[in-house]
Amino acid sequence: MGLVETEAVILRTYNLSEADKITVCLTRKAGLVRGVARGARRLKSRFGAGLEPFTLVNLTYYEKEGRELVTLKQAEIIRSHFDWAARAEALAVLGYFGELAVEFAPPHQADERLFRMVRACLEAAAEGPDALGAVSVYYELWMLKLAGFLPELRRCGGCGRGLSKGGVQVYATFEGVLRCALCAGEGDQYFDAETYAQLGSVQSRGPSEWAESFKGLKRPGQQKLSELARRLLRRALEKELKGQSSLKPFAGGPAAGAAGTGGL
Questions:
Q1: Under 8 Å CB-to-CB from 180, ≥6 apart: which residues?
Q2: N or C: more exposed end of the chain, with fewer CB within 10 A?
Q3: Which of 161, 134, 83, 82 is nearest to 257 (CA)?
């Protein structure tokens, strides 16, 4: 308790009264934190542009025992995304990133891997509009992995047979469980070798490298990975997030709404 200084990604802000804001942050030291920024809506606020969504900041806040909301004291910008976040498509993807982080991040519990994943994905998405869809899929898959909802990728969910061996055909059930040809059932979706390799590499590659490889997949392979991530998310959360409906449909270069992480 007391004064805390930490790196943070600003996820959301809400207006509070005439001059204040409630801010939702993903912090390096304390996980998901909600705080009040007094005077943040004033023209000459000490926070300036530091509380804009998806800005990386050095955050200082005061935490009092027994209170859910902390009091924000200062937000010094490390990196902002004002330029590209102004585009409608990018803003929709970033909003979805924030929505997923709020769903999965543990409140007031540090999660170093989650923080680094979110930060890395923001940086990768900023590399260009053609990276948005691929980074989204990476982001989704890694959110699932860190939360314990990503199925085993290397072994058949039926018999335990290794799937990464040459010549093994891989199928995915509707629930997202991977199976070999012997265990696959009617209606399971076939993953060709290239698509399966791309899926497996999400655990060993960073978002920029994975996104570049993803963009080289044929469109059916991209669609299969995006749909797999979405099915797993719906299963984990038992609902569909609002941000998904605001994203563009999957079109050639991945749908603006998929997820993941790798090599973090």
A1: 156, 158, 159, 161, 163, 168, 169, 170, 171
A2: N
A3: 134
Residue that the structure tokens 């920024």 belong to: 37
- Which residue range forms the structural domain that includes residue 37? 2-80
Which residue's structure tokens are 């909003």?
A: 95
Q: How many domains does the chain have?
A: 2
pTM of the shown model: 0.89
The closest alpha carbon to 151, from 47, 229, 234, 75, belongs to: 229
pLDDT, tens digit, 9 for 90 and up, residues 131-154: 889 999 999 999 999 999 999 999
Partners of 22 in beta bridges: 14, 36
Instruction: Report the pLDDT averaged over residues 220-224.
Output: 95
Average pLDDT, the chain: 89
We report the CATH number of the domain holding residue 113 as: 1.20.1440.120
Asked, for residue 45, whether it belongs to a domain, the answer is yes
Residues 96 and 218 in one domain: yes
Q: How far apart are CA 21 and CA 40, in angstroms?
A: 6
Residue 90 lies in a domain: yes
Residue pLDDT, tens place only, 152-206: 999 999 999 999 877 899 999 999 999 999 999 999 999 999 999 999 999 999 9
149 close to 228: Cβ distance less than 8 angstroms? no
Give every CB contact of residue 99 below 8 A, 6+ residues apart in sequence. Answer: 241, 242, 243
d(CA 197, CA 16): 48
- 3-state secondary structure (DSSP) of residue 66: coil
Nearest to 221 by CA among 246, 189, 187: 189
